[in-house]
Amino acid sequence: MLVLGGSSEIALATARRLIARRTRTVWLAGRPSPALEEAAGQLRGLGADVHTIAFDALDPTSHEAVLGKVFAEGDIDMVLLAFGLLGDQARDEREPEAAVRVAQTNYTGAVSAGLVCARALQSQGHGSLVVMSSVAGERARRANFIYGSSKAGLDAFAQGLGDALHGTGVHVMVVRPGFVRTRMTAGLPESPLATTPEAVATAVELGLRRRSETVWVPGALRVVMSALRHLPRAAFRRLPI
């Protein structure tokens, strides 16, 4: 298992769940930090062989070399693309450079890393690429349209990549969680149907077993977002979301 965004709470919950099943080797890719090393230590305590590698989503020129080192060590059965930046909508509207950082992290960095991993998985002839999208990408809301637009781009990219890899032995799965209770969302008003990293991890495991292409967490969000997506724009603007 290769985790891009090695200190992500959702990613670590997923790693713990898969280690409890049969995953034995985990690579945590992320910016060097105490949090990354702590995460590695926690997973080693569960019996996994855990490695860390320096990875920066904002440095696409390094992705091929960095991720190539991981794949050179042996086949990877699953890549979990879990890095992302929520940003601060009010600040990001005032400071375009901050908004660009959100877009480059969530979209540009993910496109680069996703393509590098997809090519490596295709060379193996097997493996899954799991992409953490968000329901925020289904329809941009006034409250977080910068983050939402970046996730919309990521979601579309992942779907297209899945189509491009169909029949190659590589499986691409897009995961669309709603509000997840993590450090990233601490202090924000909690949305209806809020969920946890553990619930997302459970959905990821089930999706992998079923070789699903899209997973909603919780599942009820699929119906909710279908309704919101088709709501007339004038009515959508008046919603308190």
UniProtKB/TrEMBL annotation:
UniProt cross-references to InterPro entries, sorted A to Z: NAD(P)-bd_dom_sf (IPR036291), Sc_DH/Rdtase_CS (IPR020904), SDR_fam (IPR002347)
PANTHER family, alphabetized: 5-KETO-D-GLUCONATE 5-REDUCTASE (PTHR43669), DECAPRENYLPHOSPHORYL-2-KETO-BETA-D-ERYTHRO-PENTOSE REDUCTASE (PTHR43669:SF6)
Keyword Oxidoreductase among UniProt keywords: yes
Taxonomic superkingdom: Bacteria
NCBIfam families the UniProt entry points to: PRK07904.1
Pfam families, per the entry: adh_short
The protein, known as: Decaprenylphospho-beta-D-erythro-pentofuranosid-2-ulose 2-reductase
UniProt keyword Ribonucleoprotein, yes or no: no
GO MF term set: oxidoreductase activity
Keywords: Oxidoreductase
Enzyme Commission number, as recorded: 1.1.1.333
PROSITE patterns: ADH_SHORT
Family: Belongs to the short-chain dehydrogenases/reductases (SDR) family.
